[in-house]
Amino acid sequence: MLIRLGVKLIEIILMVLAGFFVAWNIGANDTANCAGTAVGGRIIAYRRAIAVVVIFVVLGAVLEGWKNMNTVGTSIITAPPGQQNPLTFLPLVTVGIMLAAGIWVLIATIFGLPVSTSQSMIGAVMGVGVLMVVLRPDFGVNIQYGKLGTIALSWVLNPLIAAIAAYLIFKMVTPALRRIKNLLILNRVLSILIIISAAYSAYSLGANDVGTSTGVIYGYFGGSQQLIALFGAVALAIGTITFSRRVMLTVGSGITELDPTTAFSAQFGAAITVWSFVQFGMPVSTSQAIVGGVIGAGLTKGAKTVSKSKMSRIVLAWVLTPIVGFILSFTIGFFMLRV
Prior knowledge:
The chain is an all-alpha fold. It has twelve helices and two strands; from the N terminus they run αααβααβααααααα.
């Protein structure tokens, strides 16, 4: 009895540590999606941007993180009717999912690349699902390919919609801003708009990415979704504070030069796109949304202003992310099943 309790306690500790690792990486990589344009456009100081992000990430996670949590934790890998969620009786494999997703995001963060934590996590969940189907058919695990197809379609549409939204927002707000002749008032208006867009982006990040990253934990533990989301939000906040600067600089100034108006347009266009997908339980990439928004806003100045070399690196990272997540998860899960 004591041995069983000890093993269970170890499993819980590993699950919590792995979940913290994934959420910490979101903070390190995806915080740039909320405040990178504001910092790159020199509208808000880095530390103030971090404070805004932390507050609104927690709000988004607690209020709406459950929507993507359900998708990732219970809707991709399913058991036969009347049986437990497969993630509940394979704790070490569940830990492997989170390690696989977190390792790739960490590598990308070290190189300053804004990759998709959502894509990394979905790829990792898929890797373990295939592993279960191939190696343990007795579990009766089903992979919901229809749900995966819908998610994949949202990945394609996400940056395109964000780019269009940012372009249109720029075209709509520019005439109104030009009517403001007092430079001091104009600067104040722009600063307020950008801080609002950063807060909205952080809220969307909490709802989208925290829900996605903690979905596997919810699949294992069940229980209060708000409490799990709060745990993820705190871990994300720590990642934001400790390791977000490099990717933030890439997003803020590495793709195209941003002035206050284009920074606001890119930020708000991305935020409204991500939030809209969350309402349908679709875990999209905040990284792809903000890069799409930056491109859409940058195109208002002409296509030549967008850095082709930087974009090629980012797109390559996008393509690799779900593939690497799948491979790492399958490999780690394979060894976990042998333990």
